[in-house]
Amino acid sequence: METNERPQSWVEISLEGDTESTEAICEVFQKHGTSGISIEELSSSEEFRVGPQSIISNKPVLIKAYIPDDRHSNTLKQNIYSDIDYLSMIRPIKKIGETIIQETDWAENWKKFFHANKIGDNVVIVPTWEEYKAKNAETVIKLDPGMAFGTGLHPTTQLCLSQAEKLISDNNTVLDFGVGSGILSIALAQLGAKEIIGIDIDPVAVKIARNNIVLNNVSNIVKIAESSSPLDAIDLLDSKHEEKAFDLILANVTTNVLINKCSEFLEVLHMGGILIGSGILQEQMTEISYFFMDNGFRLMDVVSDGDWRAIIMKKL
After folding, report:
1. Domain 9-108 maps to which CATH number in 3.30.70.120, 3.40.50.2300, 3.30.420.10, 3.40.50.300?
2. pLDDT of 256-285, one tens digit each?
3. Can you tell me the distance from the alpha carbon of 227 to that of 243, in angstroms, rounded to the nearest whole number?
4. In the chain, domain spans
5. Angle between helical axes of 155-167 and 183-190 (0-180°, round to 10)
């Protein structure tokens, strides 16, 4: 008998590749619907959520993915490893092993290092287990990241938010593509957006985002759905709008996803609407900029943080 209950434990699958193989490995994991991916450059202690979150130079990288520990897990692992075996004929990939992680253990591990942090100009992310008093014009977001790997600490999220803070206007409609734990949606709801649709292909992220939306009292502004298509998001907009389209799109994903979804982004934006695309590495900037300019967008600005870039595009 099938149930909709959330798993109590997870299988952590660990692989070692390099920066050149990371994106392909992540695509395999995403293809099979894994519940979150973390990437750790082995010379660094930081872990990030959606990848390829690694720097340009070709270094060893530890990639982990998480699947429910249930009766389907063995079949899912076999399918994943079959695709990885194929990839390993092109680039060296090492299978490190598997670990069973209890969800309660996961939550406690987050609490050891996740504390109040300021991102953007005035947004402060505060975990639910900490008290924080807002200062001056700060916008406070209470967050329980759960297994959605979204704390707002990665440069790609900060780049996206810093630009959205400048561009958001009252009564804007917003698409948060790749919503994660809901940080960007919650921030823009508190900064004046009229209606926000957040979508993600990860069902765990969708559940966590919905919980965080309620926690921050913005469920009257933000709707969350499991989807990989901006076209699905249009159907969720309030029917009272004269034209069903978005004023602003935030897409903190990867270069490949941005390129693959370009035509859909164009279709769901108002004329003159803005797309903020983040998750781009420095070496990918030329390719993605010219691609979007050849397909209905004008490049307005590029912002950077270390090796990461975000582009701000306007629909022509």
Report:
1. 3.30.70.120
2. 899 999 999 999 999 999 999 998 888 889
3. 22
4. 9-108, 153-315
5. 20
Q: Which residues contact 121 (CB under 8 A, 6 or more apart)?
A: 162, 165
The domain defined by 153-315 folds into Rossmann fold (3.40.50)
Quick count: other Cβ atoms within 10 Å of Cβ 302?
Answer: 13
Confidence of residue 229 (pLDDT cuts 50, 70, 90): very high
Q: What is the pTM of this model?
A: 0.70
Domains 9-108 and 153-315 share a fold: no
Average pLDDT, the chain: 83
**125 sits in which H/E element:** strand 123-127
Closest to 142 (Cα-Cα) out of 156, 132, 155: 132
CA 71 – CA 141 distance, rounded (Å): 37
- Distance CA(304)–CA(292), nearest Å, equals 18
Q: Are 279 and 236 in contact (CB under 8 A)?
A: no
Give burial (CB, 10 Å; 0-12/13-18/19+) of 93: buried
Using an 8 Å Cβ cutoff, are 96 and 3 in contact?
A: no
Q: Which residues of 29-41 are buried (b: 16+ CB within 10 A; e: fewer)?
A: bbeeebbbbbbbb
Q: Which residue type sits at 28?
A: V
